[in-house]
Amino acid sequence: MSHTIEKKGKILQRVRRIRGQVEAIERALAEERSCGDVLQQIAAIRGAVNGLMTEVIEDHIRFHIVDPSTDSDVDRARGAAELIEVIHSYLK
Amino acid sequence: MSHTIEKKGKILQRVRRIRGQVEAIERALAEERSCGDVLQQIAAIRGAVNGLMTEVIEDHIRFHIVDPSTDSDVDRARGAAELIEVIHSYLK
Amino acid sequence: MSHTIEKKGKILQRVRRIRGQVEAIERALAEERSCGDVLQQIAAIRGAVNGLMTEVIEDHIRFHIVDPSTDSDVDRARGAAELIEVIHSYLK
Amino acid sequence: MSHTIEKKGKILQRVRRIRGQVEAIERALAEERSCGDVLQQIAAIRGAVNGLMTEVIEDHIRFHIVDPSTDSDVDRARGAAELIEVIHSYLK
């Protein structure tokens, strides 16, 4: 069973929040609000998508590849922990 | 009248396509499809958001600040053209 | 006279710091330090490059296109201020 | 032996190219060249840093965590292959 299934609820919540942000831009355009607002809303969506990707990649590593908190192979566990750490700093 | 109003149709189309991509991830999660698919779908959304931001920023420059194709101030027009060019290469 | 000339000192300082960071990776590789370090150093350079680009773009807007703090055209000044704001949030 | 050691030569070459690009910006500033050039050079460095990160992360996965081309665990190998693929599309 994939982590996206096990953690479906949490990830779905993030995805729905992003959908809500996209729908908010549709409304802002329909209501002809200032493009300063639209620009900031797009920037916020990109941030949310990066957050979603970071979470799904971390879960993917832990669930499908190596879970640093449980793997008996010390080197491999450290390698996975280092990867998760750099994904967080690089995708933020 | 803001460029987001004048070009509403075109921008709204991009935004709706992004909404469609987000909804596709909701379905992929609901249908418990492989997270390899979900990972690629998220990457595609980030690309689409970057594309949307690039277009809205370019329109914002042309409509609200300086349109390189019509501005009589040569230096200012070249400055705006250089900015549009680097936005395209940096946000892709 | 271009902003990169007028503000050369400040920008050059940033660029030299980035060169220092790149040279630090060369040393880390030569000294065969852990790749966890190298990964974080690369992430730090990408952050510094984004910071450099944000500063040069803002200066480019103020110097070559429209300075929101001095331009007599209110709409154009607000448009430039909105653009500078979204560049800061999007490129960070 | 870490992949950064084993593949030192190749990674060092990439890092030195990036250093060369940074030094080129120092020269462009010293020679007071147009900021259009400087903007594009910064964008090129950010692209090169993303390329470097992608290569070091892929090597990190293959060398320290799971090499999809040799690992006997089919699920884990596929998980690693999917991760490498999304890193390439997300960091480009």
UniProtKB/TrEMBL annotation, chains A, B, C, D:
<comment type="similarity">
    <text>Belongs to the FrmR/RcnR family.</text>
</comment>
<dbReference type="InterPro" id="IPR003735">
    <property type="entry name" value="Metal_Tscrpt_repr"/>
</dbReference>
<dbReference type="InterPro" id="IPR038390">
    <property type="entry name" value="Metal_Tscrpt_repr_sf"/>
</dbReference>
<protein>
    <submittedName>
        <fullName>Metal/formaldehyde-sensitive transcriptional repressor</fullName>
    </submittedName>
</protein>
<dbReference type="GO" id="GO:0003677">
    <property type="term" value="F:DNA binding"/>
</dbReference>
<dbReference type="Pfam" id="PF02583">
    <property type="entry name" value="Trns_repr_metal"/>
</dbReference>
<dbReference type="GO" id="GO:0046872">
    <property type="term" value="F:metal ion binding"/>
</dbReference>
<dbReference type="GO" id="GO:0045892">
    <property type="term" value="P:negative regulation of DNA-templated transcription"/>
</dbReference>
